[in-house]
Amino acid sequence: MNSVPKIAVVTGAAGGFGREIVRYLLKEGFYVAATDTCKERLYQLPDYTQDAENLQLLIMDVADLDSIRQAAEDISERFPNGQIAVLVNNAGIFERTPILFSDCYDRVRKTFEINLLGTYYCTSIFARYMVKHKFGRIINISSIAGTWGAALASAYAASKAGMIAAAQSWARELAPFGVCVNAIAPGVFQTNMLDQAEPKGPSFVEKQLVDFIPARRLGSPKDVAELVLFLASCQTDYLNGTVFTLDGALQIGTVETTLME
Q1: In a domain, 32, yes or no
Q2: In this model, does residue 256 exceed pLDDT 60?
Q3: What CATH number does the domain containing 140 carry?
Q4: Over the stretch 78-111, which tens digit does the pLDDT of each residue have?
Q5: In a domain, 257, yes or no
Q6: Could you tell me if residue 253 is inside a domain?
Q7: Contact, 33 vs 12, CB < 8 A?
Q8: How far apart are the first and last CA of the chain?
Q9: Is the pTM for the entire model greater than 0.90?
């Protein structure tokens, strides 16, 4: 990185992925603006990292344009010598939305507002700072549900598919300004969202799936954070418009083999 401090804006920073992403970026020397709607969990972040001097905590609702605009102004004030160079669109929710149930329409709307519209709003506002300096890295945290679909959670799957399509569209739109946009599609990970997706809990999911994952384990937030750090630090502008499936090769699957001695 050059002499101007690089600022990374992370949405949903208080969640499972978000906390690790913040920690990895701080460790690499980024100034981090950690944003979330949950004040209690957000203010626990300084205790989670050893590099809190470069961390600023901001309450921001990705579904509220005024909230995002205010956060952008606050970030500029708190890091007056920094340059907003990275945006990690990580904020998201999971809701069960069976298509035959009419009582879930509010959950459908909320899912799209946070997962997809929130990503759109944040990118629209923070990308302007990047275009001004002719450099930026935008990373959308999507899901394999966005490529596979998800029974009983079509709104979630559709919102995540939208994040992938948006990343590819913005990659074309913003490339002339030195801004690269990529997406990460995590598979099955050990987070609180997994508890919401599977009422029987992560241990049940692990028993059901681990034999089909060549990596022989569920994903860890650290896996996502490492890939985010790579994309945020990468200097080449040729890595653009790509979707990184991060699932331990689950989509490929595995076949039992006997090793020959």
Answers
A1: yes
A2: no
A3: 3.40.50.720
A4: 999 999 999 999 999 999 999 999 999 999 999 9
A5: no
A6: no
A7: no
A8: 49
A9: yes
Exactly one of 24, 31, 121, 156 is catalytic; name it: 156
The predicted-structure confidence for 77-87, as pLDDT tens digits, reads as follows: 999 999 999 99
105 is catalytic: no
Distances from the Cα of 166 to the Cα of 16, 160, 182, angstroms: 23, 10, 9
Token pair for 214: 């060549």
Residues 6+ apart with CB under 8 A from 257: none
To which residue do tokens 């890295």 refer?
137
pLDDT by residue (tens digit) across 26-53?
999 999 999 999 999 999 999 999 889 9
Q: Are strands 179-186 and 243-246 parallel, antiparallel or unpaired?
A: parallel
Given a contact cutoff of 8 angstroms between Cβ atoms, the answer to whether 83 and 7 are in contact is yes
Domain encompassing residue 201: 6-246
The number of distinct structural domains making up the chain is 1
How many beta carbons lie within 10 A of that of residue 257, not counting itself?
6
User: Does 1 reside within a domain?
Assistant: no
Structure-token pair, residue 35: 């944003």
Structure tokens at 13: 């920073």
Between strands 243-246 and 31-36, the pairing is unpaired
Residue owning tokens 């799936």: 209
User: Could you give the CA distance from residue 120 to residue 138 in angstroms, rounded to a whole number?
Assistant: 11
Cα 25 from Cα 211, distance rounded (Å) = 33
E-strand stretches of 2-132: 6-10, 31-36, 55-59, 83-89
